[in-house]
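2024-03-11 09:14:02 DEBUG pipeline.ingest accepted 1 chain
2024-03-11 09:14:02 DEBUG pipeline.ingest length=414
2024-03-11 09:14:03 DEBUG pipeline.predict start
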Amino acid sequence: MNTRDETRSATISDVARQAGVSKGTVSHVLNGRVPVSASMRARVENAIAALDYSPAETARSLTSRKRTPGEESRFDASVPRLTTVGYVSVDYIACLDRLPEREERFMADEIVKAVGGPAANVAAIAAGIGGPWPIAVSLITAIGTDQSLITAIGTDQDSDWAAAELASRRVDLIMPRERREGRLNRALVLVEADGRRTIVNEPSNLAEVDVRRFVETTDTTDRTWCLHIEGYQAPRQIGAVPLARARGFRTSIQATGLPRDWLSARGEELFSSFDAVVLHRESLALLQGVPAEPEAAMRHFSHRARTSSVWPQVVIVTLGPRGAMLVGRDGRIARADALDVPVQDTTGAGDAFVGTFLTLWLNGVEPDQAMRYACAAGSLAVTRFGAQDLRPSAARLEDALAARATLRAPALAP
């Protein structure tokens, strides 16, 4: 019997439930790549007809790249792992000359649909870099606010579409085996002509047990594995970080989404809990006892690194078009410049920076060198709309840095 809510469109989960088969079988019937028995195909096709299911084109390529906590990765143990924690959203990006005034009806130059969410962006960027810095990437995401039926990955077609997009970008989803009813988070991104953006997003908080279960059931023996938490999730997830470190994970966090009041009151926990901390220059003013001016803040962090028994391996402050600065565990300060590029949309700059830095750092690249490539990735990201539209490969980053070096080289005397 079909018990689906008739007020929403059917999803691949509904088809699987109606036919009494797995979602993988439904996917095999849709994409035709894996043989399916005639009787099984008939059951799926009958369910599709009964539910009037129309899969999005990208959802046809949905693979089985979804894991539940504790499942073994198929990658070789020598390949570093990066697991990000956070929400997935569908972003509607409106390109405007300027922000509209109150009660003004405005015409956007273009509205683009894209997968978003800081943790999802970091994961997709990291997975796309490739050799010589391979990395296995996964994303922990789960339910959001049940009352409004907003979820990280729900049962609507946008959720199927987002899962397929992330799968095509080689990002595994780690989530409960059974999705809850609901729809994917949505975000409105207003991008002005100079690249500045205003973001309005729906809330999503992951249950602490989801991360704890993953940490408790994951074996990091002889592996380099980083657990990365987006700022939105820090207040709920920071309690799982000591357990992760005790079980052999490296840990990292970025400031994107950190609540201002939490950062002001508990910012010191970042430096005692994480191996890598990535801050924005704007977040410095919220940290008690830390100078708001970036150069002074780095000198402060340098002193702390040299005198504190517990301190991150690296603290980074991103400076927008001025690049970034970092302090290593030995107190050494390093700086890297951004590329000189035309700015279209600054939404994905920070996430591209973090995804690239973590990929190289986990592959053993020195932090200051990893920061150079991360600045290049962040610079390239602002030349396109959306955070995941441009996912630079290692070769593209090499070319971008080489081109800048050529432009800076002194002219030879005739």
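2024-03-11 09:14:41 DEBUG pipeline.report The chain has two domains: 7-55, 69-408.
2024-03-11 09:14:41 DEBUG pipeline.predict end
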